[in-house]
């Protein structure tokens, strides 16, 4: 086979083709998607429909090296690799570099060695957010049940909706058309690129030149009680996700049975909206202070470390900041190691800084007030 290829229409089945990056990158369209993991080439065209983390997170890496994302999202790699085995179609040609798009091989290798040294610390969780990260690819069915219980029954949301949305955000943060957290085109125009494009194309759903003013009316107060609730409900109905819908209903049945006897139907819903209103403000300011003022742009095919550092920043460590943000003030470490329990971020941060300094990557830390002001800017 040498430098040529042996292509096969059979997905896996012991195929042994040898491919160049150029050939792999041709398989990046809907219905024809390949990924590379540690130099092995996999045809995931059909598997994406069954992927527990959602089809889009794999689609975002179609035609690319997905080794770092695979390592970051799968704590039990031995278990997950049994699903990869039948998808194998070959490997990269010996003459091909391990990294695509001319990434810095030394940087990538150093980060992977660094990541593996912290892998042993990635087996704990924290209710809605951390259980979501940890339960998707865990071996036990009880992990999935616990995930649905926490997000569905305790929070009144959808576990699948959260997974599909949040894992995309971690896989390609602040990347247009890949990170759903910046997909706010009907309400807000984010970053430095979109406002310019919208001005040139004269696309005006709303007066975006005044979005800094109406942001306070429709952003923090309405994101969770209105936008997220509508989107969750629509997603479950459109995808006919009746299991998540049942968990979703169980939350409201429990809530109403507890509060209606005391406050009546109207009073109970008013209380719920008040709580969601407060929660929404916390969610917007705490999550967006790490992302909104960072680079928001189209796909640049950066390595994992560079991509996450461009899209995230940390907030100064203090007792209040740690408590108020639930340790998400260490957003850089959270993105680099999405399976790591948050109380270990503070231990990982100094070593991440050293690695960034070695390769000239900017590691940004802001004060809490400065970060909130940057959201408005």
Automatic annotation (TrEMBL):
Gene Ontology MF terms: oxidoreductase activity, acting on paired donors, with oxidation of a pair of donors resulting in the reduction of molecular oxygen to two molecules of water
Sequence intervals crossing the membrane: 214-232, 252-275
Source organism (scientific name): Pygocentrus nattereri
Pathway: Lipid metabolism; polyunsaturated fatty acid biosynthesis
One Pfam family it belongs to: FA_desaturase
Domain Cytochrome b5 heme-binding positions: 16-93
GO CC annotation, single: membrane
Predominant location category: membrane
Family: Belongs to the fatty acid desaturase type 1 family.
Membrane topology (UniProt): Multi-pass membrane protein
Source species taxonomy: Eukaryota, Metazoa, Chordata, Craniata, Vertebrata
Cited SUPFAM superfamilies: Cytochrome b5-like heme/steroid binding domain
Protein name: Cytochrome b5 heme-binding domain-containing protein
């Amino acid at each position: 086979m040498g430098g040529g290829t042996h292509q096969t229409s059979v997905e896996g089945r012991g195929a042994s083709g040898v491919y160049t990056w150029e050939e792999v990158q041709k398989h990046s369209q809907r219905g024809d998607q390949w990924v590379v993991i540690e130099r092995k080439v996999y045809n995931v065209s059909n598997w994406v429909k069954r992927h527990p983390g959602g089809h889009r997170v794999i689609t975002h890496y179609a035609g690319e090296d997905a080794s770092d994302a695979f390592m970051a999202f799968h704590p039990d790699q031995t278990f997950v690799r049994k699903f990869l085995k039948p998808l194998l179609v070959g490997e990269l040609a010996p003459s091909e570099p391990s990294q695509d798009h001319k990434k810095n091989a030394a940087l990538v290798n150093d980060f992977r060695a660094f990541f593996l040294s912290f892998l042993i610390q990635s087996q704990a969780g924290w209710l809605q957010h951390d259980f979501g990260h940890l339960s998707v690819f865990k071996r036990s069915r009880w992990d999935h049940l616990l995930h649905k219980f926490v997000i569905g029954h305790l929070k009144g949301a959808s576990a699948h909706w959260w997974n599909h949305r949040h894992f995309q955000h971690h896989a390609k943060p602040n990347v247009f058309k890949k990170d759903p957290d910046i997909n706010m085109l009907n309400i807000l125009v984010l970053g430095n690129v979109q406002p310019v494009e919208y001005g040139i194309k004269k696309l005006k759903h709303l007066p975006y030149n005044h979005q800094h003013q109406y942001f306070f009316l429709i952003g923090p107060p309405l994101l969770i009680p209105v936008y997220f609730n509508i989107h969750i409900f629509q997603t479950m109905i459109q995808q006919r996700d009746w299991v998540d819908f049942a968990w979703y209903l169980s939350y409201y049945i429990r809530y109403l049975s507890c509060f209606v006897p005391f406050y009546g139907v109207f009073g109970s819903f008013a209380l719920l909206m008040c709580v969601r209103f407060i929660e929404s403000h916390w969610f917007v300011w705490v999550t967006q202070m790490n992302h909104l003022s960072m680079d928001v742009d189209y796909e640049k095919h950066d390595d994992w470390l560079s991509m996450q550092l461009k899209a995230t920043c940390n907030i100064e460590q203090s007792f209040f900041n740690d408590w108020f943000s639930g340790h998400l003030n260490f957003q850089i470490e959270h993105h680099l190691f999405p399976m790591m329990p948050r109380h270990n971020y503070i231990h990982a941060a100094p070593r991440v800084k050293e690695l960034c300094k070695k390769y000239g990557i900017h590691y940004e830390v802001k004060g809490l007030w400065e970060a909130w002001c940057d959201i408005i800017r």
